[in-house]
Amino acid sequence: MASTDVDSELKGRHRKMWASGDYPAMVETFLTPLGPRLVEACGIGPGMDVLDVAAGTGNAAIPAALAGARVTASDLTPELLEAGRARAEALGADLDWVEADAERLPFADGSFDVVISAIGVMFAPHHERSASELVRVCRPGGTIGLLSWTPEGQIGNLLKTIGPFAPPPPPGAQPPPLWGSEAHLRELFGDRVTFGSLAHGLLEVDAFEQPEEFAGHFRGYYGPTIAAEANARRNGREDEFAATFSRFVQEWNRGAEGGPARFELEYLLAVGTRT
């Protein structure tokens, strides 16, 4: 199979994965605070041209638009863009929505003052390609801001836990949580971006009474979990998957025994200047 056919098939699988379940509901349930944190860290304001890469439903793009910037939200998955448009309209935010692959952005060199991504571009399989695209479309002296789950944090460990149940990754694909590693970012961007801020943060999640509710939410709504469980089912490992996931949420629950569940999701917030 030609490399272009392989790439097209891979992108199709990614679109299908992120369109499965209900990722917009996850955003509304507990992910909403992340977008504004990235927008604030990047100092986004009136008059700026901003691109949000792998924007999903606009968790960062919409706050950027509400801050007065001219914003373009791009994503590979049309269903997420559709949900984002509806959310933006409800909040009175005006921005452009463009279907685009993070590894082949359809924008001219140096088109944007600020290029951001909140737990989005990290899931593009070929890190060097997408990093190079972020740099290319950002003007020299512009800002690149990234918020990514860390390898050591709960979501990084979740992806590691479900990995053995998932379909094998395509050749050359790298684990998404590497974007939450300072060393990996420095290796990816080299001297093309000077990072002035690399800060770890926690997203506290207390939306679930019991750990198993958290597990059910991810198994029903989160594309990577849905894909891994479907593959486990095809291989007769569905019960093993369920037991593994149950142990995982019990281990990572930080709530008091008998009380509401509480989880702490670690991320890396990186803000740099395009040289």
TrEMBL record:
<protein>
    <submittedName>
        <fullName>Class I SAM-dependent methyltransferase</fullName>
        <ecNumber>2.1.1.-</ecNumber>
    </submittedName>
</protein>
<keyword id="KW-0489">Methyltransferase</keyword>
<dbReference type="InterPro" id="IPR013216">
    <property type="entry name" value="Methyltransf_11"/>
</dbReference>
<dbReference type="Pfam" id="PF08241">
    <property type="entry name" value="Methyltransf_11"/>
</dbReference>
<keyword id="KW-0808">Transferase</keyword>
<dbReference type="GO" id="GO:0008168">
    <property type="term" value="F:methyltransferase activity"/>
</dbReference>
<feature type="domain" description="Methyltransferase type 11">
    <location>
        <begin position="51"/>
        <end position="144"/>
    </location>
</feature>
<dbReference type="InterPro" id="IPR029063">
    <property type="entry name" value="SAM-dependent_MTases_sf"/>
</dbReference>
<dbReference type="GO" id="GO:0032259">
    <property type="term" value="P:methylation"/>
</dbReference>
